[in-house]
Specification:
2 copies of one chain form a homodimer. With 523 residues, chain A is α/β, with parallel strands linked by helices. Chain A is built from 17 helices and 16 strands. Chain A is elongated, with a radius of gyration of 28 Å.
């Protein structure tokens, strides 16, 4: 079976993305996750441009690094310096990794226009820097910046750069489509040419500015590349790097090319979600293979087809990558989608039981009112419980009063006074907040924590408001979605009302009841 | 210059995406935006599966439809029915469009396993349904579902399906990679084969389950396809449809193939953001060509390179698609975009006037805070007026108190007490409403109408709330967009705050001031 090495640069190129910034602790966690997944190389930082990376490299060595090779990234020495005494190279030596990646310019007009060096000088800079690190016994990956753009402008010069790296003892030649402007046929032709002319493994490094980074990486592998560089979730400057989770899915499951050690592919979805979580960005739900929606079926025809025969509307079995099939609750979804949810709560209810009929009727009624359950399965679960007689309220709201004042003053523009009853006992309390919803949220939790102290392990992670049928303007119904998490799990609930306070209250109450039920309140 | 038709299915396939649901008003606005952009075909709904689509088709005809052809989508007749009297086909006739898209199954095992029809019956269903609509004088696009999967399982059967559609008078054959599991070389080979054997224009319809929908669409065009189907922002079931904005950028700017009427490509970024805004989803910042980060430079080396020579780290000039370069550390806003708005208010201000500098500074400050002016030009116009000294407030809000109570009682869950000053005269009044925002809206208008009676010609037509940075949960900043109209014109304003009442108040105040200024309050 053919094998291709995966080289992940989430911690270096990924960190160049707008809005992304990793702490040393974040980097250590991501390194572990990538290593567990079975990635071969982890490019973990540029110690010359980011001094705090040195701290990371020190700790990753002490902490062990699993099966993956940790790589430090840096540039060729500056013009006029020597490789051993340059501010670009010295921090890389300090990083103390077994492998380094050295980027060198290969596009003639960048050498003159940006480095302000002669073409010969640049060749010397490449050769001396690669040679220096090779002489220290390190595995040197030569990163040929703008290789493809350079070839389009002058085919010979980039090849001379590769030749210099080769002479100096590089272990891998990495061909970069730095601007992401190439098409698969260009990548394929030039990659094949390098493979034919050089006796070293070739890596491909693509960016997604034309939405072609995955296709380009696959084209290079078809032409013989031995290594694919990118980032597991596609993070990266501008439009991102080649999304390695998609590349891995395509190569392992469609092309029969092994990418990850130890059958790691079953952990692909978990690894992607973990990295998004550490980076504090919402995972792209539509991401091929690993996205939450990647195997979600909504249209009635599709849901029906996917039930009768999953291969109908799925290109792979989602479990192969650790993802799962999902039937979205919606007016276009039929009975098949609903029954799976019902049986989670009561396995004895069948497709044609009267309870199923009643629940579908309730679903339609609520959807007509403006509810949407596709992103709020926890509220749907509570609806099912109510219809099956498997629900009893865990608290009663007696009264809630909100007083808000404008002009706005931060942190105290609204206050809420709340009275609830739990098991016959009354609690009255109050809280201030940023706006009426926040004040209510705080007051309700404060009151409930008196009875359910472990509620403080739960927190809200997302809050969305959708105004429906906006032409009723400020009297329109609003739909509020609340996502909550408690470390072990995350769940989403929904509330609908013409009053945003009520819609938020309903979603919030469901979110809290779901938590209490899953923690055993009914047991 | 070679030309390829663009066929957008945001309103049909896009609406199948998890979390997306359009009102009739949303659909009309998206239709206008796509038509303005220069898209050739707009697939706008499936009237058989979604009865409220009929309302849309009725209104889109009355409202005129610009240059684009509006298409209604439906399936072949059911087994055993006649094409003229089938519940799949009748609603399509009612939709009254000049063009219809008829989907027919082309994968043998789907025909038997899901339709439970014989292969011959299915051929009849295709031929009769296409023939029926052709006989009504409609342009029929035949959508060959699972065409590529079908060919992989039995090359002949899908070709027989195309042949039947052809005989019956189809105008276009659309080849679908329904599960999104194909690679460019498969798409390319089979598309070329169909083009060789059939004398009809061929369309390509790809899904993104392997992250290859763009590459596959481009491969089909290279093989001779005359039409590309997809959705402008990539919305669609599972991993989405081919992202047409990326396809258009690649074909027009890299391959010299014209896609949009009237040089529409300069409006690409605006159209994508507008559609995301209407769908109430956050636009993907990394989207090729149109994403906010698509030309954002963060790495010091890249920023430097991009300054010295923009082509260094950009594959195209961002202005070609209406996007702009962004330096994340030292942001430089697109002056050209701003100057047009400034000159609307004061034609004497020039590109390099100090006023322009000041306005761009203010714009950046507000955007950093969370404002977005793409869909709220009226607020932006007020910002410009304030910076140019061409603004004086038309009322002063002294105080606003809101009292809300739960459990909710319709029409009276909140009351607002307001005090304003206009020209030294004070007005105090109060109103009740559905929730705090509605109560405030009513009270403010009631107070202002005392001084500006013609305000009653103005009404709010849309109200949208977007929660930003949702992981601050109920304390997150919200952006409120309000659309108003007075019969002659409609305009949109924006307000941002952590308090939804303040955000709404700001947008509402701008909306009223814009109306008063345009009616001559300053003259």
């Amino acid at each position: 079976m053919r094998k291709v090495d995966i080289y992940d640069s989430t911690l270096r190129d990924g960190a160049q993305a707008e809005g992304i910034s990793f702490s040393v602790e974040d980097k250590l966690r991501i390194t572990r996750a990538l290593s567990d997944l079975g990635v071969r190389y982890i490019e973990a930082g540029n110690p010359a441009s980011n001094p705090k990376d040195l701290d990371f490299f020190g700790r990753v060595r002490r902490g062990g690094k699993g099966g993956a090779v940790v790589v430090a990234f840096g540039s060729t020495r500056r013009k006029g310096a020597t490789a051993a005494e340059d501010k670009n190279t010295a921090p890389l030596v300090k990083a103390g990794t077994d492998a380094v990646c050295i980027v060198g310019k290969c596009w003639d007009r960048q050498v003159s226009g940006i480095l302000r060096a002669s073409l010969e000088e640049n060749i010397d800079m490449i050769e001396e820097t690669v040679g220096y690190f090779a002489s220290l016994g390190k595995e040197v990956i030569f990163d040929a910046e703008h290789f493809f753009d350079g070839c389009k402008s002058d085919t010979d010069y980039p090849m001379l750069c590769l030749r210099a790296a080769c002479r100096a003892g590089a272990a891998v030649l990495s061909l970069c489509d730095t601007n992401g402007g190439c098409f698969p046929e260009e990548i394929s032709g030039l990659t094949a040419k390098v493979i034919k002319n050089f006796d070293l493994p070739v890596a491909i490094h693509c960016h997604n500015d034309c939405g072609l980074a995955v296709a380009n990486s696959i084209a290079a592998v078809a032409a013989g590349a031995a290594q694919v560089q990118g980032t597991l979730t596609g993070f990266g400057e501008r439009c991102g790097n080649a999304n390695l989770s998609t590349v891995i899915g395509n190569l392992e499951l469609k092309k029969g090319i092994s990418c990850l050690a130890n059958g790691g592919i079953a952990g692909l979805t978990t690894a992607c979600r973990l990295i998004s979580e550490i980076a504090n960005v919402n995972p792209n739900e539509r991401e091929p293979y690993t996205g939450k929606s990647a195997f979600a079926h909504k249209g009635g025809m599709h849901v029906d087809g996917a039930f009768k025969y999953p291969g109908s509307f799925e290109h792979i079995d989602p479990e192969l990558v650790g993802n799962r099939r999902k039937f979205i609750m919606s007016e276009v979804a039929g009975r098949s989608a609903v029954i799976a949810h019902i049986q989670k709560i009561d396995p004895s209810v069948l497709r044609d039981s009267p309870e199923t009929e009643r629940i579908i009727g309730k679903l339609k009624e609520l959807e007509h009112f403006g509810y949407q359950f596709e992103a709020a399965e926890s509220t749907f679960e509570l609806v099912i419980r109510k219809q099956l007689g498997k629900y009893k309220p865990l608290f009663e709201l007696v009264n809630l009063k909100i007083i808000a004042e404008q002009p706005y003053q931060e942190g105290q523009s609204a206050s809420a006074l709340i009275k609830i009853i739990v098991d016959g006992k009354t609690e009255i309390t109050a809280a201030e907040g940023d706006g009426p919803v926040n004040a209510m949220d705080k007051a309700l939790r404060k009151a409930l924590c008196v009875f359910y102290p472990h509620l403080d392990t739960m927190h809200l992670t997302d809050y969305k408001v959708r105004v429906m049928d906006g032409n009723e303007a400020t009297a329109s119904k609003v739909r509020v979605l609340i996502e909550s998490a408690d470390g072990a799990e995350s769940w989403t609930t929904v509330g609908v009302s013409a009053d945003i306070i009520e819609a938020s209250r309903l979603a919030l109450a469901d979110s809290i009841e779901y938590k209490l039920i899953k923690d055993g309140a009914y047991k």
